[in-house]
Structures are given as C-alpha cells and as structure tokens.
Amino acid sequence: MKQNVLSTTLRRFVLYIIIIVSLFSIIIYYQTWFGILNNQSLTAKNIYPLVKSELEQRKILLYSNLTSSAFNAQTYLFDYIDKLAVMSNKMIWIIDEEGMIVSHAPRLESLINILEKKQANYTYYLPEDTGYRKIFDSDSTYIKNSKIFKRMLGEEDLIGRSYIFVDSYSTSRTDPEQMTRIAICISTYKQQEKEAFISNIHLLVFPILLISALSVLLVAAFAKSVSGPLNDFLNAARSVSQGNLKVRAKYTDDRTELGELSKTFNSMMERLENTEQQRAEFTSNVAHELRTPMTSIGGFVEGILDGTIPQEKHKTYLKRVSDEIKRLTNMVRDLLVLTKLDADDEASLVKNRFDINDMIRKSIMRFEEEITFKKLFINVNFHSELTYVYANSDDIERVLINLIHNAVKFTNDGGNITITVEPKRDKVYISIRDNGIGIEQEDLENIWTRFYKSDKARGRDGTGTGLGLPIVFSVIKRHKEMIDVKSKKGIGTEFIFTLENAEQTDNS
Length: 508
What we know:
By secondary structure, the chain is an alpha+beta fold. It has 15 helices and 14 strands. The protein has helices spanning 5-62, 67-88, 109-112, 133-137, 148-153, 190-241, 257-305, 314-343, 356-365, 368-374, 393-409, 441-444, 455-461, 468-478, 502-507, and strands at residues 90-96, 101-105, 116-117, 124-125, 142-146, 159-170, 179-189, 352-355, 377-382, 388-391, 416-424, 427-434, 483-488, 492-501. Strand 13 and strand 14 (492-501) form a beta hairpin.
C-alpha cells in the first residue's frame, strides 16, 4: 500500500511535540510545586523569629503557678500570634514536650473537641495518641514539610504542611537550669496550598496550549512543504525501480537542501540514462562488430567448401579469413582490457618509476616494418637522454602503442611523425603528431567513444576495432592525467597527454 510521506511525517512530528509538551508540563508541575514549598518554607522562617521573640518575653509567666499570670501571658501571646496568623494566612501552634498547647491561632472551634483540657486550669493538652512526642524525639531543631498535624488532628482538609522549630527555654524564675523544650509550628492551610498550586498551573496552561497549537500548525506547514518534494522523489524512485529512467524531480529551489537533493537526483538520472544508452549502444556495437567478421569468415569458408571459390583463389581467401580471425582476436583482447580498466578503481593502480624515453623507442621499433614499408620519417625530440615518470608502465605502453599505431596507419607514404617529450614542473608532456589525413571536426568529440570509427578510417585497412582510443582515454583518466587532441582535415593530428614527473616528485 502506498503511503503518503505527509501523513507519516506529520504523525511523527505531532508525537514529538506531545512528548516534548508532556516533559515540559511535568517539569513545570514539579517546579511549581517545589516553588510553592520553598515559598512556604521562607515564610515560616520569617515568621519564626517574631514568634520566638514574643515567646521569650512570656515564657516564665506561661509556666507560673499563678493562674492569673499564666492566663494573662497566654492572652498576650495569643493576641500577637493571632495577628501574625491573620497577616500571613498561616496556622501558628506553640506546644511543649508535655503536650501542652502554649498558644495557637487561629482558634478553630472544630479543633476544641480534639484537645484535652486539664481540670485544674484552662490549659489544653494534646492527647497521647496524636503522636506529638515524635516531634521532640527527633534530633533536628527544624522539621521541614512535616505532616505531623494531619496525623495529630486528623483534619486532612484543613491542615497542610507544617514547619516546626524546636528550642529549649528556661521556664523557672528560681531555677535557671530548668529547661523546657517548646516547638513553634507554622502550618499552611491545605486549601491554600491547592489554590496556590492551581493558580500557578492556570497561569502556565494557556501558554502551553497556545505553544502546542502553534507548534502543530507550524509542523503541519513544514511537513507539507517537505513532504511534497519527498513524495515526488518517492514516486520518481518507484518509476526508476520499474525501469523508467526518463523521470526527473520537479523541485528546483536551489536555496534549500531539498533543492540540492533534487538537482543531484536529476543529475544522477541523466547519468544513469546516458549509461543505459551507452550500454545499449555498446551491446549493439559489439554484436555488429562481431557479426561482420564472422559473416565474412563463414562466407569464405562455405565458398571454399562448396567449390564456389576456385582452387587457385583458396590461398587468397584463406588469408582474408586469417585477417578476420586476427581482427576478432584483437577485438576480444581490447574488450578484455576495457573491462579490466572499468572494473579496477584508482586505488588498485600500481605506479612505478620508469624512463618514458626508452619506452617510446621500444614502441617505435614494434612498427619498424610498417614504417619502412611506407617510408615514414620519425622525428623524436627528447628534452634529455633520460626522462623518468611515475605511472603504471604496462598501461602507458599500451597508450603509446595505440597512438603510434594510429599515427603510422593514417599517415600517407613518405609522411612525418614527430614525438616530443618535455618535462614542465611536476608533469611530463608527451606529444605524438603526424601529417596524415586528419580527423573531421564533427568526429573529434566522438573519437573516445567505444567502437566509433569514421568511414574513412574504417575503410583504411579493415583492421581497426574502434577500441584503441577508448582504451587510451580510460588509462589516462585512471591516472588522473590530461589528454587532448588537435586535428585538421588533410593536415594531420596531434595527441598530447601528461604523466607525473618522477624527478620533480623525488626532489620534493
């Protein structure tokens, strides 16, 4: 089933946004909550010194045996912490290690029933089962975020977190050593915690939702802008997989990466199409080039066998058969060479140091018989007696043989062939020039094409395979060197190619 790239891309982006928003929301949730707790803790720490200072003034009277003095001290203390409780919207409790409620504010009637009152006076005490002694059993003088009042008083909807400060106070006029541990508990209403938390969350919910909606819209627009070209590429790739090499990408905006991708894709398809055309032409040419000599061989042999060719001409026609067989052999050999050159990459190229002058001399000697027969003049211009280059000697020898053979073959009797070797910095320039028949200008751009031969060249001696110059081009290209050709009809042809200067490289 064909799937649209837009739907897939959009789903993925939306999933990413959901994940990011969820993580962001979790971070905000905990950051808000801990911010509230830190604010509560800071408020409690600011209130505590004020309560402690007032308690220091009243502590002895609070524990006086005189009921009226203790009652008055408690009243004054209550008035003070009641004002603090109203101003800060907090619950403030002061209890000692015996469970006595020294003071508390605000005075909620719903809590009175929980507290125990001693018969002797009007002082209230916490019941033992409230577990208040755990406060004083702790070694810490500051208990942060405590929930002890929830457990003590059971008012889950009323009492929030408590911040408890425990100190020892001298509570006797006659015995300064008599110390009483007293805890100042500053608590937050639970409902207040909820309201503060919800208020902070509400402040952030709208921006989060707005950002999420905008992100989805932007992602949808972005995904659509990206998916359009991607769908084109996908459809083009499907067409290519079905054998259509003429398909091209339509997205042409060079300012984006997709434009560069489209440009590269189209360039690749052009090369593939050209390669396929060359392959088809190559196959057709191979079939044609093989069929022609084989047809000739078959006709000559049948003519000899059925008596069509007279006895006295058998030798002549057998010589033609032999020539055609040699031509087939040369063609197969050149095809194998080209196949090897195409298969080998540049990394497998093995270079060695050798004298190009000596190789040129040996290459000329291979055509001594043809040169003598056509009375050709060979002019060799060497810059020095020895000229060393770095290259694959076997490949370069094949280049020289092909170029010299062409020069000898296409130069008229009594003509001139000039070979020049000239080092220039890090390169050695080799030139092979003749004053032969030349090449038509419209044929120059095709001479490197496999099996390409102009009509006159084809009829020159019938021995050419059309693979010599393509081999030369492949070898030079594999060496990452330059080759050029200059020719004028009736004046001659010159091939120039370069090789790496070994002397310059050694000096470097």
